[in-house]
Amino acid sequence: MTVNPGAFSSRPAVAVTGLGAVSSLGIGIEDNFSALKAGKSGIKPITRFSTEGLRTTIAGTINFITFEPWTAIGFTHRLADMAAREAVAMAGIDSGRFDGPLVLAAPPVELEWPQRLELDRLAGEFDEAASYDRLLRLSRNHRDSALYDLTLFGKIADQLADSFGTRGLPITLSTACASGATAVQLGVEAIRRGEAERVLVVGADGSVGPEAVIRFSLLSALSTQNAIPERASKPFSKDRDGFVMAEGAGALVLESVDAAKARGAEILGYVLGCGEKADDFHRTRSSPDGSPIIATIRAGLADAGLAPEEISYINAHGTSTPENDKMEYTGLAAVFGDALASTPISSNKSMIGHTLTAAGAIEAVFSILTMREGVLPPTINYDVPDPAIPLDTVPNVARSADVATVISNSFGFGGQNVSLVFGREPRR
């Protein structure tokens, strides 16, 4: 792989100065990373709603945060706010005075049964269809802001922007399972273009509800190994059978290195590269030749100016679905070649589950912590290796290592793929 050093000399280096995380393992980066290092699982039986008749009855729900009445929009906002507050505080920026834009990755807004019942309560009538046409009719007749808020995609970002004092129009995006990584990429690009000195990036998802579980189940995407929940997510194992839905939020404060140094901020790490590639093969499946995944990984490395052998650790997308894990291996093998055999790779999802739109941001946070602490989180439940996927998965037990660089993969339904490259030091 040829690297052109001159390609990086004129653009601002992007530093990470704040981190925040909430997952099924706990609140805050300290509790989360301690649990990751210990190989602890946050997967548990679903208690938020009845799972009678469902094939999947487990998830990485965050039950230790009380939120009533539960709605996906409301709970996602709560998680996003918690992670963002930790990141902004760590960056040493006054709450309510964040002088930069906000980029939020959030789940798509849909009318689920809790929202439909709320519509009935507000309208004083019951209609099983609860269509969008009915929502528009009710909005015209009742002029109730609560109806408007139920389906406003940008509502969470608006509220966060008000809370943190961010500048400009807040961006909300939803690119499936790559959303959190896409949000990081947009923040990086804004700083590189000179449009912002700092960006608050948040990825959040609190949408484990009955309809979401049913939809993914109908796609045959979810694990049905309900008997021992903490052992259901098993990326790269031969007996993997699907991902485990989960909730969480990750937040990062990104800054140009000059801006961070000017205010005396501690730099936690650097975003060295971002790669992306669309895949229009299928709404859930990857292209069989792996070309979009291969192109995404190569683009991330090229943007960072690094060769595959210069990567210390791979934070895998590693969902635990039969096809995704195979395709990720295929893509990595094509790019890394012989170097893959000596490059450790593990999946945080084995412990926290798949946090969907939040995953890329949470795993970005964990990637920075992996470099700072010099500890590789394990892939737990790796007891039956898949001979078709020969990887050093850091099986079951964390490992100390000198981690100078990390590539973190996010491959979403609909062919939305992003690879982020992080470094302990800036690009020279």
TrEMBL record:
**PANTHER family linked to this entry:** 3-OXOACYL-[ACYL-CARRIER-PROTEIN] SYNTHASE, MITOCHONDRIAL, POLYKETIDE SYNTHASE-RELATED
Write out the entry's keywords from A to Z: Transferase
> In its keyword annotation, does this UniProt entry include Transferase?
yes
Protein name from the UniProt record: 3-oxoacyl-[acyl-carrier-protein] synthase II
> Which pathway is recorded for this entry?
Lipid metabolism; fatty acid biosynthesis
Per the database record, which ranges form the Ketosynthase family 3 (KS3) domain? 11-424
Family from the record:
Belongs to the thiolase-like superfamily. Beta-ketoacyl-ACP synthases family.
